Every structure is written in structure tokens, then in C-alpha cells.
Amino acid sequence: MKRLTGSVQQIAQELRREQLLRFEQANDVEKQVQAILEKVRQEGDEALIAYTNEFDGVTLTQLQVAEETIAEAFDRIEPAVLQALEAAKQNILSYHVHQVEEGFADFPSEGVIRGQRVLPLERVAIYVPGGTAAYPSSVLMNALPAKLAGVEEIIMLTPPPKNGVFNAAILVAAKLAGVDCVYQVGGAQSIAAAAYGTKSIPRVDKIVGPGNQYVATAKKQVFGQVGIDMIAGPSEVGVIADATANPVFVAADLLSQAEHDRHARAILVTTSSELADAVEEEVERQLRELPREAIARASIEANGRIILAASFDEMFDLMNEVAPEHLEIEVADALHYLGKVKHAGSVFLGRYTSEPIGDYFAGTNHVLPTSGTARFSSPLGVYDFVKRMQYTSYSQAATLAAAPHIKALAYKEALQGHAKAIEKREEEYENSKN
């Protein structure tokens, strides 16, 4: 792992520079995705079938996954995995129910009513990657908050399996989470289908879920025509650790993110040079034990960083600059330091709170802002699947009382039509007295 030295500002600047280099997208990807979106918009299902044949090597006769296929997945899934999904579901629901938002009505003065309604989105799509990146836990994390929000229809988009046999856990998770329809189409073409609608796939109000650079680019390009959750980058973890931390645990947690893909980032910040040395040795030892060693090693060598800080405050200052997706605080009395964290997607407190606890079981969401976007965005939640509609009611008397202020501002902004709309009501009132 590369070691970085310097001031907090210098190190933060170097990390941001590295981040920009890693996430720059080539123009050809943008252009390819744009062409795919346009073809699907114009040709619908025909384009989806053609792209699935070209990119996935699968010839489809229908886009929707049959209910019998989903039911059969329950017969194939391992009992332990089913039990884990059911337990995770309960934890996700029990956590996210606290995010359910109520509207309000306000009566500030005689004749005036103001308020806000919280309304669920009507239809959302969840994108679920296929192949080795098939994560049933992500199905639960995306669909269950939508159900709690009251979304009327949830559809799932996932690439068709090359061998014709779906990952059983993906389909089971979809059923457990209340997904209404599953469509076997992936990539940028599936994002286009959800954004524009085709004969088989309905147009949605929002698209959520992770995907490769083509999926991420497609989501970015359709945003504005449809809502999206975020443009997610590669996974990342930051670990703040003092001399009391266990180097075996720290190394394992760094590698738990590095194994995601070659672009994943793992950063350790510590006040202990002895811990830094021990973690570096442990990372090398544990790498040799991982089945995904090649991916994890490429990630650690390219993006793994160890930073020696001069103080506790400096450790937190640096991580706040990084704003990592996952932040582990492996120090004595970790909860005491939570208030020092300003920017992070999800925080894991204490030596036994390994990040995978959040990925799979705790109930907190694992769809998180990456690439420093935790400075201004939040984990996926119930609030992502609702919209807020405000309303106002003024009686005649209240409107007449407010008229001088409204007209003063309207004329100041040279919007005479706004002022006239109020004056017409004043005229009606004056005429009614005659």
C-alpha cells in the first residue's frame, strides 16, 4: 500500500487528484451510451432484444421473467441464504420505518392555510447487475425502502443469464422485497427502457441501483427525464485507527472493499506507525488467502493508501476531506468520536463493527454516496421514493390584506402581470361594495 505524507491539505489534494484520474470517463463511452438510448427510444423492445443478443449473447423470446421461474428459485436457494435474506429484510424494515415522513398543515393567520403532502412515486425501477456482481442484498436495500414509502409499482431490471438459469437468491430477494415484475434486460439499454418505456417495459418515475460504467453513464444521461438515485463510483472504505486497533481486523476490512473491483479504494489513517506497519504486513498475508486475490491486489496496489497522522483531530480532518463511502472508526471509545465526523456515507463504530455488518445485516442502507459525494448527499432511504407537494389557501380577506406587499414586490421585479392578478381581486371586492 502506498504511503502518503504531508499536511492534511496536501494529502487531501493528492487524494482528490487520484480520484479524478480514476473516475474520468472516456468520450467513447458517452457516445456509445447516447446511441443506445436513442435506439431504444425509437425502436423499443426490438432494440432491447437486439442489444441483449449483441452484449449478453442471449436470444430472448420474452422480456419479463415468468412467475413460475421466480417460484422455482425458492426451490433452488440454499436454506441458510433464505434465512439470512429474511432476517436482513426485517432489520432493513425496522431501521427504515423511522424515515417515513408525514405531511403537515399550518394555519399562521386567519384565512390562511399552508401545508405539504408527502406522496410516494408511482413506479420505480431497480437495476440489479448480473454475473459475478449479482448481489441479492442490494435488491432488499433498494426495494424495501420503496415499499415503505408506498410506491405503487416496483420493477426490477437484470441481465439474462447466459446459461438460462437465474441466480436464485436474486429472484427470491425480489419476491421477498415486494418487486412486482422482473425483466431480463441489462446494461444501458435497460436504463433507456425504464426512462422512455417500451411495449413490454413501463416508463418509471425513478431508477435506482448500481451498475457498470455503461449503466452509470446511461443514468446520468436520462436524468431530468426520469429521477435517479446517484451516479455511484467504485466502492471505498476509510479506516481511522489508533494504537489499540487490531491490525488483523483493519487489514481484513480494507480488503473487504478491495475485493469489489480493481478500482475500489481502501484508505487507512492512523496515529500509530507500529499499527501502520502491522496492517501492511497483514494485508499482504491475507491477500494470499482471498479467492479474489487478483482483483483485491490490483485495487490495493493502485488505490490502497496508508496515512500517518499527527493527532486524532488530524485523522478526522483528513477523512472529512475524503468523505468516504464507508468510514470505520477503530479507536478506543469509538462512539465518543462520532461527532467529529462531518462527511461519510455510513459510519461503523468500534473494532467489532466491520463494514460487512452494514452491507448485509444491520438494516442501515448500503447504497451510499461515493467519490466524495457524501459531502452533499445521503444513503438511499425512504425519502428517495417520495415527493413533496405544497399547497396554499388564502381567503378573500387574507388576500386583500397581503395585496400591498405582493404588488410592491411584483412591480419591483417588473412583473406587472403578477401585480395585475392581485389587483383584479381588489377590483372585484371594491365593485361588490357598490
UniProtKB/TrEMBL annotation:
Top-level EC class as recorded in UniProt: oxidoreductase
Signal sequence, start to end: none
Keyword annotations from UniProtKB, A to Z: Amino-acid biosynthesis, Histidine biosynthesis, Metal-binding, NAD, Oxidoreductase, Zinc
Amino-acid positions noted as binding substrate in the UniProt annotation, renumbered to this chain: S235, Q257, H260, H326, D359, E413, H418
EC number assigned by the record: 1.1.1.23
Record's keyword annotation contains Glycoprotein: no
InterPro entries attached to this UniProt entry: Ald_DH/histidinol_DH, Histidinol_DH_CS, Histidinol_DH_monofunct, Hstdl_DH
Cofactor binding, per record: Binds 1 zinc ion per subunit.
Gene Ontology molecular function terms on file: histidinol dehydrogenase activity
UniProt keyword Transcription, yes or no: no
Reactions that this protein is recorded to catalyse: L-histidinol + 2 NAD(+) + H2O = L-histidine + 2 NADH + 3 H(+)
Binding positions for NAD(+) per the UniProt entry: Y127, Q189, N212
Active site, UniProt feature: E325 (proton acceptor), H326 (proton acceptor)
Annotated binding of Zn(2+), by residue: Q257, H260, D359, H418
Domain of life: Bacteria
Cofactor(s) this protein requires: Zn(2+)
Pathway info: Amino-acid biosynthesis; L-histidine biosynthesis; L-histidine from 5-phospho-alpha-D-ribose 1-diphosphate: step 9/9
Known function: Catalyzes the sequential NAD-dependent oxidations of L-histidinol to L-histidinaldehyde and then to L-histidine.
Family the UniProt entry places it in: Belongs to the histidinol dehydrogenase family.
Record's protein name: Histidinol dehydrogenase
Source organism (scientific name): Enterococcus camelliae
Gene: hisD
